[in-house]
Amino acid sequence: MGSFLDSRLWPLILKEIRQILKNKQIIFLLIFPPTVQLLVFGLALNPDVSNISLGVADYSNSPNSRELVSTIVANDTFEIASYLPSAADIGQQVRTGRISTGLVIPPDFEQQIATKEPAEVQVLIDGVDANTAGISSGYIKQIIRQYGRSLSQSDRVQPVQTTVNFLYNPGLLSSWFFVPGVIGVVLTLTGSLVSSSTVIREKDVGTLEQLLMTPAVGWEILTAKIAPLFVLLMGDVLLASAIARLVFNLPFRSNYFLFLAALGIYVFVCIGIGIILATISKKQQQVILTSLSTGGRL
C-alpha cells in the first residue's frame, strides 16, 4: 500500500479526482440524467393500463349479467364508475370523457343464455387515446370471450386443462422487462459521455500535453483517468439498482457480486469507447454529439 501511495500513479489519480469534483458539469451528468432517465423511461415505457373507468347499462339485471360485470371488474384493469339507465346515457358519458368504456347488456341476455343462443353485448370505447383504447378493447374482448366459454363448457367435463406459469416474471409486469434494459442504456450513454467530456476538456485546456511531458508513462496517465471515472460510474450502478428495487420493486435473485463484476466490465468498455471518441474528436460539442449517437446505437 505504501509503495502505491509513493508511486507516480497515486498523484495522477488525485489530480483527476480534484478535476472531476471541480467540474460541476461532470457531477451533474453522473447523478441527474441517469436518475431522471431511469424513472422517466421506466414509467413511460409501460404499456399496461389499469383502473379504466367503466359505465354499465344493464337492461337484463339478471344473475348472469351481474356475473359478467363482476368478471370484468375482477382485476385492476376496469373499475365501475357508474351504473346508467340507458345506452344513450352510456354514449353521452363516453363523449364527455366521464368514462372510458361503456358496457350495454340487452334485456334478453338471460334468456339467450338459457336457450343457448348467441348472446350479444355492446361495448363503447373512447378512442381519443389510441393506446388505451386498443388495450382496453383487447382486454374486455378476452374477458367476455372467457366468460362465454365458461358458460358453454360449464356442463361438460374438461378432459385436459392447461395451467401456464410465467417464470422470472409471474405477474408479467412491464417494469420488470424495461428497467434492466434502461439501466444498460443509461450506463452506455453516461459512461461514454462523461469519459469523453473529461478527456476532451483536458485537450482544450492543454493539460494533456503537459502530462505527456512528465515522467509518467502512458499506462499510468490512462489508468489515472479511468480509475476515478470507473468508481463514480459504479456508484451510478448502485444508484440504478436502488431505484430499480425501491421504486419499481424489481427483485434480485442471483449473486450480486457477479452482477457488479459483469457491469464493471461493461462500464470499463463504455469508458474506453468515450476515450476513443475523445481522441478522434476536436471539440467538446463534437464529442458530445458523437457520444450520444454512438451510445444510442449501442
Kindly describe this structure:
- With 298 residues, this protein is an alpha/beta fold.
- It has 2 domains: 13-44 and 173-297, no CATH class; 52-152, abc type-2 transporter like fold (3-Layer(aba) Sandwich).
- It has helices at 2-5, 9-22, 24-44, 63-72, 87-96, 109-114, 130-152, 174-205, 207-212, 218-246, 256-280, 284-297; strands spanning 52-58, 78-83, 101-105, 122-125.
- A 4-stranded mixed sheet has the order 2-1-3-4, sandwiched between helices.
- The protein is elongated.
- Mean pLDDT is 78; it is low at 156-162.
- InterPro entries: ABC-2_transporter_component, ABC2_TM.
- Its main location: membrane.
- GO terms for molecular function: ABC-type transporter activity.
**Strand-residue fraction?**
5-15%
| Uncertain runs | 156-162
- Largest sheet: spatial strand order: 2-1-3-4
The chain-level mean pLDDT equals 78
> Percent range for helical residues?
55-70%
Task: Name the structural class.
Answer: alpha/beta
Find the count of extended strands (DSSP E, 2+ residues): 4
Q: End-to-end span in angstroms?
A: 38 Å
Strand count, sense and barrel status of the largest sheet are:
4 strands, mixed
The tally of structural domains comes to 2
**Shape, per Cα inertia axes:** elongated
InterPro entries: ABC-2_transporter_component, ABC2_TM
Membrane topology: Multi-pass membrane protein
Protein name: ABC transporter permease
Organism: Leptolyngbya foveolarum
